[in-house]
Amino acid sequence: LFDKCTQVMNFMGTFSVCSSLTAIPQGLFDNCTKVTDFVGTFSGCSAITIIPRGLFDNCTQVTNFSSTFSGCSAITTIPVGLFDKCTQVTNFAGTFGACSSLTAIPQGLFDKCTQVMNFMGTFSGCSNITAIPNGLFDKCTQVTNFEDTFRKCSKITTIPPGLFDNCTQVTDFGSTFSGCSALT
Q1: Interatomic CA distance for residues 11 and 80, integer angstroms
Q2: CA distance 59 to 45
Q3: Which among 81, 67, 23, 14 has a CA at the least distance from the CA of 48?
Q4: Residues 79/55, Cβ–Cβ less than 8 Å
Q5: Torsion over CA: 110, 75, 35, 54 (sign)
Q6: What is the pLDDT of residues 13-59, one digit of tens each?
Q7: CA 108, 105, 85, 96 torsion: positive or negative?
Q8: Rounded distance between C-alpha atoms, residue 41 and residue 102, angstroms
Q9: What is the pLDDT of residues 47-100, one digit of tens each?
């Protein structure tokens, strides 16, 4: 679909609220190496079940993944290494918000994203996530905002020790764990 669109910089809302869209093709963005913005690209695509492995591997200039998969309520997993090549990202606000079928966050999901400043609502409303991986934010030392990050993640029972130890620039933890009713 986009193989010859090598100058694209913005996929903001491209497939937003395409509620009958069931799949993202493998390699969809492989030749779109200049993209910086995936804001709301698949937001509200409630029938998508899988995020293809390596979907963003060639998109090394991306800075904004805000609400990219927000409301994709049928997605159950995030591929390991999904953002490994996206080292310039500064914004993950609402990226997986309301992905209510998502059951886990992969270990090291943000390890290569050392420029991130905003995790506002990243997993908000992911009501089937049961655990936060150890060291999830260890490499994200520039973060200033964790507002609503795990809001309404009602199956999370514990917070890993030292989860925010390396995040010394944070100014906002508003409602970070609000509605996490299973926390003990």
Answers
A1: 23
A2: 21
A3: 23
A4: yes
A5: positive
A6: 999 999 999 999 999 999 999 999 999 999 999 999 999 999 999 99
A7: negative
A8: 18
A9: 999 999 999 999 999 999 999 999 999 999 999 999 999 999 999 999 999 999
d(CA 141, CA 138): 7
pLDDT of res. 127: 98
* CB-count burial class (<10 Å; 0-12, 13-18, 19+) for 124: buried
Give the Å distances, CA to CA, from 160 to 28, 62, 101. Answer: 35, 29, 22
- DSSP code string of 119-183: -TTTTTT-TT-----TTTTTT-TT--B-TTTTTT-TT-----TTTTTT-TT--B-TTTTTT-TT-
Q: Which residue has the tokens 């953002």?
A: 83
Facing residues of 118 across strands?
Answer: 91, 145
Residue keyed to tokens 């606000």: 93
Q: CB atoms < 10 A from the CB of 10, how many?
A: 14
Give 113's contacts (C-beta < 8 A, 6+ positions apart).
83, 86, 87, 89, 92, 139, 140
